[in-house]
Structures are given as C-alpha cells and as structure tokens.
C-alpha cells in the first residue's frame, strides 16, 4: 500500500536577490515495508526532499500526502502531531543525551511522544525494543562507553519506540566503518520488514544499496532514475 505520496513537489530558496529552484517537480510514492534509498551528488536536493516528505519544512508548490491526508494544507500544529506520532528520524550522528543511560534515552522518548504508558509498561516496551536492536545487554550504559555502531542502534531504537509508520534516515551509516555500516543497514532493513515500516533514506554508500528495495537517483532537483 502507498503510505506516503509526493506530488509535484517544488522547493525554491531565495539567497539575497537570487532565487534557486532546488526541487523541480518531484513525484514519488512510498510503499509500506520497503526501504527506499535516495542517492545522488552532494547538493542534488536529497536532504531537502527528505525533510519536506517528513513535514520538517514546507513545499513551495505541490503536495505531501500521508495516509491520504494532504500535509501541505495542515496547520503547523497538525503537522507536528503527525511527525511526533507517525514519523521516526535517524541522522548521521546518534545525538544521544550524554548524561542518560541507554534505557533512560528511550524512556524519555516515550515520555515526550504522548504514548501514555504506565511506568511498568514503559519498562517492558523499552526492553522489547532494545532486544529488537540487539542492545538489551547495554541498557545501563552511557553513550560515551558505546561504539559508533552501538550508538546508532540506540538512535534507531529511539526512532521506532513510539511505533512510527515512516522512518526517515539521512546518511545513517556515514560515520561508521564498512562492517558497522552493514550491520546498521541490515537492522534498518529487518525493522522495515518485521514492523512494516515505510523507510526513506539518503546514502552516499553504494555498498548499502544491496539492502534496499528501491533506489532513487537524484540529480539537480529531479529524479533521474528510479530502480526497483
Ligand atoms: N535553507 C536553505 N536555504 C538556502 N539554500 C538551501 C537551504 N537548504 C538547502 N539549500 C540548498 O539546496 C541545495 C540542495 O541541498 P540538500 O538538499 O542539502 O542536498 P543533498 O542532501 O543532496 O546534499 C544545496 O545547494 C543547498 O545549498
Ligand atoms: Mg544531504
């Protein structure tokens, strides 16, 4: 099923006097249970498209349709609610809170995402997700004692603990070595399949593309190629 649809999306930025069109009419439908990777040269508009699809910035023209609802005409509060309850985010760096343990990072996320679980249910949920990402043995650890790959696993756990429908990942393996990159990519793929998430990611790493269902090649604000 198509969960997220991008229709005729354009994005223009104005730098002083100069107007530059960064996205030039993008059409894209993303299906549940699939990992779609965006590739392309730096500056081709990948992150801009990802953040627009995620409701983090508005379009200049066109629509983003999530679960049949046009996000482009929602109020910023409505968009925030969709983002908080239905979307998860992973970036190049894990951005964990240095003074919280792994377990506490996830509890904090449950507290802010309005899931309304009781304390014991929260604990169970945190344990379940940590098992899923292979980090349950490190739940009392602080970020400084984790490896880069382990931190990214915790970041992924934090991104999915509120059961989002869509996972947005911008260069999630860019700061990892090739073995750790492969492990993190396999984890993203497994979670997408087992939890039936719709995953949209950006990557520079050609080796990661074997783990994706679909590859979108961006060039200069347009989709050059779409390989399924
Ligand atoms: N907020 C902004 N204001 C002005 N220009 C921007 C802004 N965000 C992105 N750009 C420009 O849009 C182009 C595409 O950026 P981006 O989407 O980050 O590319 P990619 O992720 O493919 O490297 C770049 O030339 C960048 O400088
Ligand atoms: Mg980028």
Automatic annotation (TrEMBL):
Originating species: Lysinibacillus pakistanensis
Record-given protein name: Putative hemin import ATP-binding protein HrtA
Role of this protein: Part of the ABC transporter complex hrt involved in hemin import. Responsible for energy coupling to the transport system.
Keyword Transport: yes
InterPro entries: AAA+_ATPase (IPR003593), ABC_transporter-like_ATP-bd (IPR003439), ABC_transporter-like_CS (IPR017871), ABC_transpr_LolD-like (IPR015854), MacB-like_ATP-bd (IPR017911), P-loop_NTPase (IPR027417)
Positions of the ABC transporter domain: 4-228
Subunit structure: The complex is composed of two ATP-binding proteins (HrtA), two transmembrane proteins (HrtB) and a solute-binding protein.
Record localization: Cell membrane
CDD domains, per the entry: ABC_MJ0796_LolCDE_FtsE
């Amino acid at each position: 099923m198509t969960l997220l649809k991008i229709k005729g999306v354009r994005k223009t930025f104005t730098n002083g006097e100069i107007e530059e069109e960064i996205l030039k009419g993008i059409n894209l439908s993303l299906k549940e249970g699939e990992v779609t990777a965006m590739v392309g040269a730096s500056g081709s508009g990948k992150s801009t498209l990802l953040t627009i699809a995620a409701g983090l910035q508005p379009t200049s023209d066109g629509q983003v349709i999530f679960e049949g609802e046009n996000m482009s005409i929602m109020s910023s509060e409505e968009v925030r609610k969709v983002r908080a309850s239905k979307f998860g985010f992973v970036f190049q760096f894990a951005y964990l809170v240095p003074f919280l343990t792994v377990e506490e990072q996830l509890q904090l996320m449950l507290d802010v995402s309005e899931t309304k679980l009781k304390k014991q249910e929260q604990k169970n949920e945190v344990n379940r997700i940590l098992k899923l990402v292979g980090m349950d043995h490190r739940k009392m650890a602080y970020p400084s004692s984790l490896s880069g790959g382990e931190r990214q696993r915790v970041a992924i756990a934090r991104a999915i603990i509120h059961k989002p429908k869509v996972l947005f990942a911008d260069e999630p393996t860019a700061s990892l070595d090739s073995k750790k990159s492969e492990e993190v990519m396999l984890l993203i793929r497994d979670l997408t399949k087992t939890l039936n998430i719709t995953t949209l990611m950006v990557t520079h790493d050609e080796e990661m593309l074997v783990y994706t269902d679909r590859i979108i090649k961006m060039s200069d604000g347009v989709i050059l190629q779409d390989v399924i």
